[in-house]
Design goal:
With 55 residues, the protein is an all-alpha fold. The protein has one domain (3-54). Helices cover 67% and strands 0% of the residues. The chain contains two helices and no strands.
Length: 55
Amino acid sequence: MQPNQLNNLMYKFLAKLNKVLLPSYSKKRLDLTKASKLQLAIIGYRYFITTRALD
């Protein structure tokens, strides 16, 4: 396996794990202007992992 493929597999695994473990704020209709710092951090982390998994 090449390092790029291994990296991509890792991000895809993390994306699936995030989907199971972390809360989905879009389903809860969370207003981003009223989100706490922790909620914003979780949203940012999920975005980062999801965009890397799609590459």
